Amino acid sequence: MNLLYVSNSRIPTGRAHGVQIMHMCGAFAAQGAKVRLVVPGKRNFLEEDPFEYYNIRAHFKIERIPVPDIGSKTARLARGVFFFDVITFALALFFSRIARRGDIIYLRDYPLLFLFSPRRNTVAIEIHDVPRWHFIFLAALKHASRIIAITHGVKDALVALGVPAQKITVAPDAVDIEAFAHPESRAAARARLGLSDDKKIALYIGRIDGWKGTDTFFNAAGHLPDDTQAAVIGGDEEQLAELKVRFPHVIFLGYRPYRELADNQAAADCLVLPSTAQHEISARFTSPLKLFSYMTSGIPIVASDIPSTREVLGGESAYLVPPDDAEALAKGIVEALGDPHAAAKAARAEELVRNYTWDSRAKTILDALQ
Fold first, then answer.
1. CA 165 to chain centroid
2. Which pLDDT belongs to residue 80?
3. What is the dihedral sign for C-alpha 137, 24, 302, 318?
4. H or E element in which residue 212 lies
5. Average of per-residue pLDDT across 191-200
6. Both 18 and 166 in a single domain?
7. Which of 172, 229, 313, 341 sits 20 to 30 Å CA-CA off 39?
């Protein structure tokens, strides 16, 4: 099986989609597919070998298509040039004739569907969000042989728009359990990160953004007792300069490379997923990678009680709290840190995450494509 994975992404990148793309290509390769990952030939802000950066063992080819690079590492500017970015990449793909007859084409960017014909190739699209422009989106989906929905919420939204349910396979995100199996000690992690050893640490790791619910966590920090500190790993320098002034109760540790993730989690007494219910992408569509990495840790998880979280976690394996409520989140953190049964809940999450591996996800998808 020849699989051509095409993504308009900088690889490597500090964002979560890079983790997912590289691990899925590795998992497809481990399942026996001959994988080529095609990405735009843009400047990378992380000058590292992608296989080393993401700790990918099963190798595959990465091909870079030359394109104009007017993007930026700042999210605000990246959104502003999104359409130009997609169009130039699509044109570069069209003229490169990168696809071969019989390849399985695997995409994450729905506008690229217009380049491929399901009569010539099996064309799969992985959907993480349902955009507002339904007309263009639905027209693009007609070029897909198979649709991979990241959550049941995505599938339900697609079916409501008239997409045939039998065309959709649900495949939540996943994790490399082995990569998280042997983190450093709590004391070593805290010493490396500069965290106090005599405080309880509630830790959020990931992107700082409104739809991630991070402001709720920052505000919750002001409701925590004196023996508990809120800490954050993530964010760029510009964001952090402002946030440190606005939220003095929060320890902002800045960006850390993905390969440190297992060790960084070990510094926490609880791990926080404060997803908002105010954005549909968060409430129904997202399958956050941090949730699955949190679940490997054996550390209690405090998360917003929203549908996208409940698809994976229940109250027996995490502390679920009302979303967008800083005081409720703070109470959930205090409960998790003081509950004598917290270790048992964390152990149930560890057991549950064994159902969510990259290899099992790749097998589910490849079975659907055959």
1. 24
2. 53
3. positive
4. none
5. 96
6. yes
7. 172
60: which DSSP letter?
-
> Domain check: are 54 and 137 in the same one?
yes
Q: Please tell me the predicted confidence (pLDDT) of residue 167.
A: 97
What per-residue confidence (pLDDT) applies to 71? 58
What are the pLDDT digits (tens) for 199-234?
Answer: 999 999 999 998 899 999 999 999 999 999 999 999
Residues 165 and 186 in one domain: no
Residue 51: closest CA among 59, 43, 40: 59
Contact 311, 156 (CB under 8 A): no
Q: Give the domain CATH number at 247.
A: 3.40.50.2000
Cβ contact 92:66 at 8 Å: yes
Closest among 32, 35, 73 to 51, alpha carbons compared: 35
Residue 208 to residues 182, 236, 274: CA-CA distances in angstroms?
A: 27, 9, 11
3-state helix, strand, coil in the chain (%, to 5): 45, 15, 40
Q: Are residues 157 and 226 in the same domain?
A: no
Mean pLDDT (whole number) for 242-247 = 96
Q: Are strands 2-6 and 34-41 parallel, antiparallel or unpaired?
A: parallel
Please give the DSSP secondary-structure letter assigned to residue 245.
Answer: H
Q: How do beta strands 319-321 and 168-170 pair? A: unpaired
| Rounded CA Rg of the chain | 21
pLDDT greater than 50 at residue 331: yes
Residue 270 CA: distances (Å) to CA of 149, 202, 318, 353: 30, 5, 10, 17
The answer to whether residues 224 and 165 belong to one domain is no
8-state DSSP, 233: E
pTM confidence score: 0.93
- Digit-coded pLDDT (tens) for 119-167: 889 999 999 999 988 999 999 999 999 999 999 999 999 999 999 999 9
